[in-house]
Amino acid sequence: MKPPQSRVAAPPRAQRRRHGSAPGTRSNRTRSGRDGRRSSPPVDVEVVTTDHRDLAEGLGSPIAPLANWNPTRRPPRHPVRAVPYALLNPTRLDDLKNPARWELVAIESAEGLGHVRNGITYAQDYTTCGSMFEKPRRIQFMEGPNEPAIADHLELCPRYIDFQFQPLALLFRRADGVLIRKYPDVAYEIADHRVVFGEIKSNDAWFAAEGVRRPLERVSLALEASGLGPIHRIKGEPFRRDETVEAHSIAMEARLTAFDPEADGTAARQVIMAGGGRTRYADVVGALGGPASVGADKLYAMLLRRIVDFDLRCIPTADTIVTAPRPVAPYALRELLGRFERKAA
Q: Torsion-angle region of residue 142: left (phi > 0), alpha (psi -120 to 50) or beta?
């Protein structure tokens, strides 16, 4: 008479791989059906094997996402969105809605010379946001991923001394008699007091789309006829590169750092002038004294106030060149918008 077989308990789930057979092999106590699923062991001893190739092919695999993982660089943020079909083939702009037949009725700026609309909505497939900026001293409302990136650049670059998103409303009458409004994305004042109006899209593909190009050309002609100059096409894609976004994020957080304009500002300008008007970033930080991290934050605050200037397309290094722009105060943008200010009823 054969002695009775002892029953062996199954190992814990976390230890089953260790007690099972090697990956890719079949246990002599398990079998697979034609559909690849494992059937119950025919004997009392329960041994479970785990084949990681099955996990990688399954839904919700913990292994499959690691194939694209790069430990030294995160995936690109905000990939560029494809141009919608409705903008590539805009049949809605034919006949009576043709932008070439739009008649300009009026141009209006907002009371207080801020934004004419805020654009905040949950009805679109892109993000909308608002934020306070120091140069315009107003809340700016932006749409999509490109406009916030451009706003950060306008805030931090000393070449620009004032800006306003949604600065004007252009009222047109279509051929069918319907009144419509168009809004330039942004207006900004350059250090030489020129005022430029701009339209922001991701890249050239967006500007080439018929549904964007034809209305934009009509708006540009209307601005030129009113003495405001042509509208500039601003591509947001270069400002959304990872290194630029990282540099802008650090600078935006530190731009309000407190510093002494007399002591710190004079020390920064003296070391720049001693180098012939341009010097190394590390030398300016060292001239401010104290911890290097505090000196770097002060430089970002001086960048906002046009005491210093340096490139922010990437995070500054010790050898980044720092210059000292001339002092200037903004006035031209608000003066221009005042010509079209909408008066309260």
A: beta
Tally of CB atoms within 10 A around 16: 15
Summarize pLDDT for 232-241 with one digit per residue, the tens.
Answer: 999 999 999 9
The pTM is what? 0.76
Question: CA 262: distance to chain centroid?
Answer: 35
Distance from C-alpha of 308 to C-alpha of 240, rounded to nearest angstrom: 24
242-273 as b/e: b if 16+ CB within 10 A: eebbebbebbbebbebebeeeebbebbbebbe
Q: Name which of 90-99, 112-121, 208-217 the model is least confident about.
A: 90-99
190 DSSP β-pair partners: 160
How far, in Å, CA of 213 to CA of 183, rounded? 14
Q: For the chain, what is the radius of gyration of the CA atoms?
A: 31
233 C-beta neighbours (distance < 10 Å), count:
16
Distance CA 110, CA 117 (A): 8
In this structure, are residues 135 and 163 in contact, taking their beta carbons and an 8 Å threshold? yes
pLDDT band at 178 (very low <50, low <70, confident <90, very high): very high
Tens digits of residue pLDDT in 35-78:
555 545 554 544 444 444 443 443 444 444 444 444 455 555 55
Tokens encoding 193: 């007091």
Confirm if 162 and 196 have CB atoms less than 8 A apart: no
Burial environment of residue 239 by CB neighbours within 10 A (0 to 12, 13 to 18, 19 or more): buried
| pLDDT value, residue 11 | 52
**Measured between alpha carbons, how far is 330 from 160 in angstroms, rounded to an integer?**
9
Other residues' Cβ atoms within 10 Å of the Cβ of residue 312: 20
